[in-house]
Specification:
Number of strands: 26
Number of helices: 16
Strand content: 15-25%
Largest sheet: 10 strands, mixed
Distance between the termini: 100 Å
Helix content: 25-40%
Structural class: alpha+beta
Shape: globular
Length: 606
């Protein structure tokens, strides 16, 4: 065994990924909860000393239980353990954007280029490239007194102004004693500060932060932390979400649905087309094939501003074929990166796919710890754990008085599409937008397959002042009226299924056709059409106003066949309108045809 190993504990038992360790006699370094430790298997055939990363979960005297983030094959009772004296942390600094990490922030491309596709155990790579040079520009001078999160300078990263901030763990005020402009790596000093304790600390472009602890919000005037109320919608360019079930910037939403209902496609559309600065995709337990598709497609795609999608994206990749324990940690890694960019005053979107797999990882660990189980064997603290990750979203006022937001959208994969299972129910009690996917709508090829009768958004009324200012006074009223139309149409459809069309009146059949028309031309959207894939809010408003006018017309029909024929033609014209570029000749032509068709069936009041 290598004599340089500074072991402070040893392995006393092993159960799958759960390992119990005991402090060595004479060790003066106590174990702490959530501390990172390294298990050192005594393997004579190893080409290098494996250092298996683990996290302490529970302490009972000199014995501690830790979850190992890799396979424990080869670990034996008596193997030595090193302590890191720090919690599970990530590196924060320039160079994060465009990267694909695993759940512990190891860069997967670097690992693959170094070791091939079969990665050895016990490998720990720096998250940030230590060779890349960054042009650092200071914005403070020597003698400036600052607090944690204050901006000391900037670098340019993929079109963004990346703010270099005073480390978040600085207590009280600190004075800048030296700062210098130049081209440096993330490991080279750029400034020195004198702490309130009198000690001097050297600063680089990067800092570390524990993932299970929220990054503290900046202290503003009079040492007050200001957390703001979400007041602006997240524009996804998806009509169904933006108009009917909006999500606020800094808000919380969830997308539950059964297998094959289109969760992954919908989350990819949201991440591609949302009006945000930074997107962090956390693949915590989904199938590797879906994640590989995301990784290979994103570099080829453009966002709504015409920039390469990966220039604003970070992918945390811990699929179902990767270690379960790391899957549980991956979502915290993604949230911490999101909080870091929010602290700069940027709007950040986190997509977690899926929180069900993340909760299942917690269930496995909880079972091995022999904790008292809750419903369906999930840990009793499932509800508080889910609330804990979603509530790290929000809008804050940064140290330089700009606003930053972190929006959290999690997909949920309930077995059999059962929305009554614990993960879905705990999520529903936390979020304020629920986009429930329907297997029936997906089977009918109604995409996005969000069921408008099942879904809801508490942000619709909360954001009414914004909609009134930027769209119209009647926007929310129109949306609520159309939602009522959809419910009426569904009730009439159920009557038709029982009695046939003969059992309802022509007036009811008109309402049913109106609801179907709204569904076909507005709620559904073609992800493969260059125009319809992303619809600006102004065009959504124009389309919605046109639909409201059409359904409120004083119709006159001779029979149900005339009703069906009219709405079939109207639906075809409106779909072609959706595929036509705004203000093009085709667009104006279809608008005229819709007006002519509608005039042919209204009551002649003359």
């Amino acid at each position: 065994m290598n004599n340089t190993i500074k072991a402070t504990a040893r392995v006393v038992s092993i159960q799958d990924s759960l390992v119990s360790i005991e402090t060595l006699t004479g060790s003066d370094q106590p174990l702490t909860k959530n501390e990172v430790i390294y298990i050192l298997p005594a393997r004579s055939d190893a080409k290098h000393q494996e250092r298996l990363k683990a996290e302490v979960l529970r302490i009972n005297g000199s014995i501690a239980d830790a979850q190992v983030f890799e396979s424990t094959a080869g670990v034996s009772v008596g193997d030595l353990v090193e302590q890191s004296a720090e919690m599970l942390s990530v590196e924060l600094g320039p160079g994060l954007l465009g990267q694909v990490y695993d759940g512990l922030q190891n860069p997967l491309d670097k690992l693959a280029s170094e070791f091939g596709y079969f990665l050895p155990k016990g490998i720990d790579f720096p998250a940030l490239d230590g060779n890349a040079k960054w042009a650092f520009t200071p914005i403070v001078q020597t003698g400036t007194v600052l607090q944690a999160s204050a901006v000391i300078g900037t670098v340019q990263e993929r079109g963004f102004t990346h703010k270099i901030m005073l480390p978040f763990d600085v207590q009280g005020e600190a004075t800048v004693s030296w700062i210098q402009e130049g081209s440096v790596t993330v490991n080279e000093p750029v400034a020195k500060i004198k702490l309130a304790s009198g000690k001097e600390r050297t600063l680089t472009l990067k800092q570390r932060w524990p993932v299970r602890k929220a990054i503290p919000q900046p202290l503003l005037k009079q040492n007050i932390v200001q957390r703001m109320y979400p007041h602006e919608p997240l524009i996804t360019h998806l009509r169904l979400i933006d108009s009917f079930f909006p999500i606020a910037k800094g808000g919380m939403g969830c997308i539950p649905g059964p297998f094959g209902a289109g969760k992954t496609v919908l989350q990819n559309l949201i991440s591609r087309n949302s009006d945000v600065d930074i997107v962090i995709v956390v693949a915590c337990g989904e199938r590797a094939g879906e994640v590989v598709e995301t990784i290979t497609e994103f570099p080829k795609l453009k966002d709504v501003k015409g920039k390469t999608l990966m220039d604003r994206t970070v992918i945390i990749c811990n699929t179902s074929s990767m270690p379960v324990a790391a899957r549980e940690a991956s979502i915290y890694t993604g949230i911490t990166l999101g909080e870091y960019y929010r602290q700069m005053g940027l709007n950040v979107l986190i997509i977690a796919d899926s929180t069900s797999r993340w909760a299942q990882a917690m269930r496995e660990t909880s079972g091995r710890l022999e904790e008292i189980p809750g419903e369906e064997a999930f840990p009793a603290y499932l509800d508080s754990a889910i609330k804990g990750i979603y509530e790290r979203s929000g809008v804050i006022k940064t140290a330089d008085q700009s606003e930053g937001s972190l929006t959290m959208i999690g997909t949920v994969s309930p077995a059999g599409g059962n929305f009554e299972e614990p993960v879905t129910q705990s999520t529903l009690g936390t979020v304020k937008t629920f986009l429930g996917l329907s297997a029936d709508r997906a089977y009918k090829r109604f995409y996005p397959a969000v069921d408008p009768l099942l879904s809801w958004s508490r942000y619709l009324e909360q954001l009414q002042p914004w909609f009134t200012e930027h769209l119209s006074q009647s926007w929310v009223d129109n949306v609520q009226d159309l939602l009522k139309l959809l419910k009426k149409g569904d009730t009439i459809l159920q009557m038709i299924q029982v009695t046939g069309e003969e059992g309802i009146t022509t007036e009811d059949f008109v309402i049913y056709q109106q609801a179907l028309f709204l569904d076909m031309v507005y709620l559904q959207q073609d992800a493969f059409d260059a125009v319809d894939v992303a619809v600006p809010l102004a065009r959504q408003q124009e389309s919605l106003n046109r639909i409201v006018a059409l359904v409120n017309m004083p119709y006159q029909f001779d029979d149900k066949d005339a009703v069906r024929d009219y709405f079939t033609k109207l639906t075809g014209l409106f779909k072609n309108l959706n595929y036509s570029p705004t203000n093009s000749s085709e667009y104006k032509d279809y608008c005229d045809k819709i007006d002519q068709l509608s005039k042919s069936v209204i009551i002649d009041k003359s």
